[in-house]
Design goal:
By secondary structure, the protein is α+β, with helices and mostly antiparallel strands. The chain has helices at 19-26, 32-38, 59-67, 71-77, 103-110, and strands at residues 4-10, 13-14, 41-45, 48-53, 80-84, 91-99, 118-124, 129-134, 139-143. Strand 8 (129-134) and strand 9 (139-143) form a beta hairpin. Helix 3 packs antiparallel against helix 4.
Length: 149
Amino acid sequence: MGYYVEIIQSDAYIPADQIEAACRGMEPMMQPDHVAEHGRGGWWGGGERKEVWYSWVNDDDCRDLLAKNDLAGFLEHWGFETYTEDRDGAIYIQGYNSKAGQEDYMLQNLAPFVAPNTMIMWRGEDGAMWADAFDGEKMVEKNVKLVVE
């Protein structure tokens, strides 16, 4: 089971001069206590939760990628397709096509480092559409209305 989502359009990017800051900014989110509080993945045994992690993500791998300032690798580990432009060194978020996990939570934490006035437009497997808009400080989910003229 799961709900599949895909990016249908994105102009969101992390400017080159924000990549290292983004890595440092994401590290608290990946600390075990924080994961234990916010993670929705994990396993149960004997009627109790034995381990917790972010859905579909290996937290240890994420911590290693951030320590190496590999923000593109970190995003790719979360299932995003990225690319970097030689001209500006920014990391562009171009795609995602998989089962939904906790990408929304990760993007909320990444939001202060994403270029303002950019967005990611999503479509769910049932045709639902929405957008994550970034203002330079936070991410706001917006409803999307398809208009055919």
